[in-house]
Amino acid sequence: MSVTKSVCIMGVTGSIGKSTAEVILAHPDRFRVDAVTAYRNVPELASMAVSLGASFAVIADETLYEDLKRALAGTGIVAAAGENALIEAAERPSDIVIAGIVGSAGLRATLAAIRRGAIIGLANKETLVCAGELMMDDVKRYNATLIPVDSEHSAIFQVLEDNALDRIDRILLTASGGPFRTWSRDDMAGVTREQALAHPNWSMGAKISIDSATMMNKGLELIEACRLFPVEQNRIEILVHPQSVIHSMVEYADGSVLAQLGTPDMRTPIAYALGWPERLSLSLPRLDFTAIGQFSFESPDEVRFPALRLAREALRTGGTLPIVLNAANELAVAAFLDRRIGFLQITELVEAVMAAHPSEILTDIDHVFATDILARRWTEDMIAGLCH
Ligand code: NAD
Ligand code: MG
Hints:
This protein has helices at 15-25, 42-52, 65-72, 83-91, 107-115, 125-141, 151-159, 185-188, 193-197, 206-214, 216-228, 267-275, 289-292, 306-317, 321-337, 343-356, 365-386, and strands spanning 5-10, 31-38, 56-59, 78-81, 96-99, 119-122, 145-148, 168-175, 236-240, 246-252, 257-261. It is of the alpha/beta class.
């Protein structure tokens, strides 16, 4: 018999949060939800807190505290608001924290969970991009456990043999190539918000959908993979695999390649993180190999998708550069979603901000936060200049 695990879901109203809620509701005997958090959507947060039977609900936007309190009146669920309440949610003694906030906004709460030695199902890849090595040091120091939720990293985690990092020849990080995989730069210049949001294989939040279209998502995932699985950078290769069935592969020193396959559904890697070290059952459609027919593979094109080159550069240079890359990208994507800049300008902006601000050696976590704030200011100024 397995014991019931308590779960904190950071970002419960998002795509990862909702998929997590579905997996949990399908296993009421295995999980109990302790805390849930969201940014601004009070009605959805309140209704999910009630349906999940949570004890503690946090709205990140402090100005919405009274609204949340009203929405939860009579339910017995404690309402809270603001950054410190997000940290409190992560610090409560739940067994697992699902880090499903988008962007560097999730960093403080994830660190709080790490520092109490929690098991963390990490979807929020931007935190590892920004604070990677410092975060991994804390994971060791506080004896926390990081289980990747990102499908590629979950795949690698699942096929990684114990203490095998020195026996790995290559990690093959697969990429769908996104909706513009076969498009020319000229064609991409006119891409609309709607076209960029329509991913061929996955249904996801807005920011990661745009990241997939520019392939910055794969760039961030490359940095994420280097942090989670510390092999030499040139051993991690990006491989375009448009069917999104092979979620990633590891090639060992003897030439064996181990892969994890599945349908493109985030509930599978989320269930893996929630159940770890056991596997949960999920009644999802299974892979139909004869219907798929063929797998295909291509090399990534760093000319049409400069985000890949920029991410490699940030990784190689290290220091504060990955933080700058991430912050510039977060703001550029938001500006594209607001129709303030064009599609190609997203990576042009990231490149310009990175070029204008040479990397510094990263000293500590406060340096991460300070750089994030500064890089946002630089990017905002540049966007304002462009939109003149
Ligand atoms: P989403 O936009 O659908 O949801 C984001 C969640 O974070 C929401 O609950 C929102 O309320 C909350 N949030 C947003 N800004 C916040 C802030 N400033 N402070 C506090 N909370 C805030 O995003 P998503 O697609 O679920 O992605 C979440 C994370 O998971 C991202 O880092 C993404 O890269 C990663 N991820 C997502 C998928 C996917 O399929 N959606 C797959 C792999 C990895
Ligand atoms: Mg992924």
